[in-house]
Write a structure and sequence with these properties.
Layout: H1 20-61, E1 69-73, H2 80-91, E2 94-95, E3 99-100, H3 109-119, E4 122-130, E5 134-141, E6 146-159, H4 166-178, E7 190-203, E8 209-213, E9 224-228, H5 244-258, E10 266-270, E11 278-283, E12 288-292, H6 297-312, E13 321-323, E14 331-332
Helix pairs in contact: 2-3
Length: 333
């Protein structure tokens, strides 16, 4: 053990206090460092936000990522310009009221397919994005299942011959010259007979003409829609003759009567575009039925079946017509 002399005194420690000037300089340096850090942080955030906003604009709102090409295939009868109008209308909308549907990253392919299905009856449709900035629409149309018979009225005018040969003509002319003061004119008697020319066409389920059929085509086993068309202009493939709703209603009528237990067989359905609220169908028994497009079809068919069962019964052979156009009434003769 170390022994210290009794006269040993430890050396006092000298503490050096920081001068006021050095303290101020230290505080100033700290403040500068903190201020510099804050400025760098603010500048960094401004830079980051600017880059972020630029990226959002570039990828979402600029024209660089918008759909530029739309390719539609499979539309044999449906006009391509009408399909393009549906697509353009859907692309003109915005998601969440901000993001445009035209952006290739956010194209609503399901909504486009749904809108086309609402307008046209089709078997299948596929809408795909086609990188980098294209849109591909492939559809399969339903095959034509109905025959359109267009009847065009033609007036045939028959005139009675007042004089049958040339001698009588000369004699009457001479008589007229002699007694010119007592000339009486005889109006020609005219007999007007209305005849119809018929044209047959395949019609698809959207009411669009597919092709023309030969006049001698057997249409007995096909649904037939007959319309009387005063306009004698040509009917060409691609022309829209009937609305999709009317064609759907007529198909539903055929399908519903096929399962009816009253043995009602339709020969054809007649539709007048000038009276869009009415339909008429003729049966193989020779009687016809008037329908309303404003009343549910099932309601009218139930009324028809009830009338045949409860009122008409065995009188179908003498039946002329049944009128179902009044909601709560059935008229027949």
């Amino acid at each position: 053990m170390l022994r210290r002399h009794k006269f040993y005194k430890p050396k006092p420690r000298i503490r050096h206090t920081r001068s006021t000037d050095r303290t101020d300089r230290y505080i100033t340096a700290q403040k500068r460092e903190i201020t510099g850090g804050m400025v760098r942080t603010i500048v960094g955030w401004i830079f980051f936000m600017s880059v972020f906003i630029w990226f959002i604009y570039f990828f979402l709102f600029s024209k660089n990522f918008q759909i530029k090409n739309i390719h539609i295939t499979g539309n044999k009868n449906i006009p391509g310009n009408e399909l393009r109008a549906i697509v353009d209308a859907e692309l003109a909308k915005k998601q969440w009221a901000i993001i445009p549907n035209k952006n290739s990253l956010f194209v609503p392919v399901d909504d486009i397919a749904e809108q086309i299905r609402k307008q046209y009856i089709i078997d299948n449709i596929t809408v795909r994005k086609k990188p980098p900035f294209g849109l591909s629409i492939e559809l399969t149309e339903k095959l034509s299942r109905v025959v359109l018979r267009i009847k065009t009225p033609i007036q045939i005018i028959q005139t009675e011959e007042a004089i049958g040969d040339q001698e009588k003509t000369v004699a009457s002319t001479t008589l007229a010259e002699v007694s010119h003061n007592n000339v009486t004119e005889k109006e020609e008697q005219q007999e007007r007979v209305v005849e119809y020319t018929e044209s047959l066409y395949y019609l698809d389920v959207n009411g669009i003409v597919v092709s023309q059929l030969p006049p001698a085509t057997d249409v007995e086993n096909l649904p037939v829609i007959e319309i009387i068309r005063a306009n004698q202009s040509d009917v060409n493939p691609g022309d829209i003759i009937l609305s999709r709703e009317i064609v759907e209603l007529i198909f539903s009528l055929y399908e519903r009567l096929l399962v009816s237990n009253k043995s009602i067989v339709i020969t054809y359905v007649s539709y007048d575009p000038g009276i869009p609220q009415e339909l008429l169908f003729m049966t193989t028994e020779g009687w016809q039925t008037f329908l309303s497009t404003q009343i549910p079809l099932e309601t009218q068919i139930q009324k028809l079946e009830l009338a045949l069962q409860e009122k008409i019964k065995d009188g179908r052979s003498n039946l002329q017509y049944i009128d179902l156009r009044v909601k709560d009434r059935v008229y027949f003769k």
